[in-house]
Amino acid sequence: MSMTEQATDRTVRAPKILVMGVGSSGARAVAAMASLNPDIDAVAIDTDTKVLEAIGIKKTIHVGSTITRGLSSGGDVELGRQSIEKDSSNIRKQLRQVDLLIIVAGLGGGTGSGAVPVITRIAREAGALVLTMVATPFKFEGAKIARVADDALKKLRTHSDAIIRIENERLVDRSDAELPVEQAYARSHQVMMDGIFSLVRLLSRNGLVGLDFACIHTMLRNCDGFCNFASADGSGEDRAKVVADTLLTHRLLNKGRMLEGAAGVVIGLTGGHDLKLSEVDEVMTRLQEKLPEEVWLNFGVAIDSGFEGRLSAITLVAEQWKEALVDNNRQMGLSFTKNVNPGQGELMLETTGKGEFSRSDPTIHNNEDLDVPTYIRRDIKLPR
Fold it and tell me: Nearest to residue 269, comparing CAs of 237, 307, 296, 229?
């Protein structure tokens, strides 16, 4: 075998990433994203046929036709759950050979809150890494909507590798009192799009400094359920300063205070061929001044000709960190954790899938999938 053939054999397949918008809010956000970047593999899922027809995305899945008859779930979480269970085979088809599933949804309604926990379970059974990006309600939406969102978040923790919460309330402040409602919700969608664009861009390109799927996997596998997200863009001569200032005062990072107590951080920078080492140094140095010394930190730099004169940054911040006790067949990278003492914790057991029965419809009884082991269904964790 020639050296060229050997190199070809060692070529690693690029991770397959699927972005899935669930419910009206998630579907609209993903559709807007797909219109800006058609190369991203995206699918929208909803019970409401009018929403799916209006968003103009190529790949859509209409669920619950026999349950809601093409209408929305009307804020009924149970109808959202039943709708996705009824058409779970269509979801499984979308997940074939998917390495990373990014689910986008707004919580507090019916379809998103009811369907997303089911989809995360199906994705885990298929062997995909699951990152769920959800927007939580504004305070003015009421206490009932907030409770629905909280209940959905608790269910999501069972099967999501990590959850990025975008708290809509943090996107506005007193100075935004005159902000039109439509623009307030548009901010939430924009934050979601920025996050997805940045992640997909970093994972789809070979960077100058290593930040790959293995790094993201390590972060998600150890972040104990929740991580926070923020992005920043700058242009011109002071773009590095703008990016650093934006991240250090970002609303979604509690105006930078989350960095001070962070347990794990991933930082990805993207610039053009004119990106200078001094600019990378400025951003990283200023951020590290805020971070604890013992933080697990990984960063990457990618060059994109479309970013000439610009600098873009994304950061994922984990407030807690639990070092994995054992490797499993879903691990796709190495942990570079240093100086982190996990202390007393819990043994997180997880299902490894159904094997040759992964495409079969689940056995549902009393709203539970009996094909999933009891310790997973009931979220039982064994002490270390």
Answer: 307
Same domain flag for 362 and 267: no
Q: Are 228 and 319 in contact (CB under 8 A)?
A: yes
Residue 172, judged by CB atoms within 10 A of its CB (0-12, 13-18, 19+), counts as middle
Q: How many CB atoms lie within 10 A of CB 375?
A: 13
Backbone angles phi, psi at 88, to 5 degrees: -65, -25
Last residue of some domain: 267, 298, 318?
Answer: 318
Collapse the DSSP code of 68 into the 3-class scheme (helix H, G, I; strand E, B; otherwise coil) and give the result.
Answer: coil
Task: For residue 48, count CB atoms less than 10 angstroms from its CB and return exposed for 0-12, middle for 13-18, buried for 19 or more.
Answer: buried
Range of the domain at 374: 346-383
Q: pTM of the entire structure?
A: 0.73
Return the DSSP state at 350: -
Adjacent-strand bridge partners of 17: 100
Instruction: List the structure tokens of 49.
Output: 């046929």
Check: CB of residue 383 under 8 Å from CB of residue 349: no
The amino acid present at 375, given as its one-letter code, is Y
Q: Which range in 179-183, 219-223, 247-251 is most confidently predicted, on average pLDDT? A: 247-251
CATH code of 138's domain: 3.40.50.1440
Query: Contact, 244 vs 282, CB < 8 A?
Result: yes
User: In this structure, are 265 and 351 located in the same domain?
Assistant: no
Q: Give the separation between CA 353 and CA 364, rounded to whole angstroms.
A: 16
Rg (CA), the chain: 21
Residue 344's pLDDT band, with cuts at 50, 70 and 90, is very low
How many angstroms separate the first and last alpha carbons of the chain? 48
User: At 131, which amino acid appears?
Assistant: L
**What's the number of domains the chain is made of?**
3
284, 316 contact by CB (below 8 A): no
Q: How confident is the model at residue 280 (pLDDT cuts 50, 70, 90)?
A: very high
Both tokens of 125, joined, read: 């059974």
- Reported residue count of the chain is 384
Q: Which helix (H) or strand (E) covers residue 164, if one does?
A: strand 162-167
- Which of 193, 157, 270 has the alpha carbon at shortest distance from 35? 193
Closest CA to 42 of 108, 98, 110: 98
Token pair 């991770």 in the structure block, residue: 15
CA angle 98, 99, 103 (to 5 degrees): 75
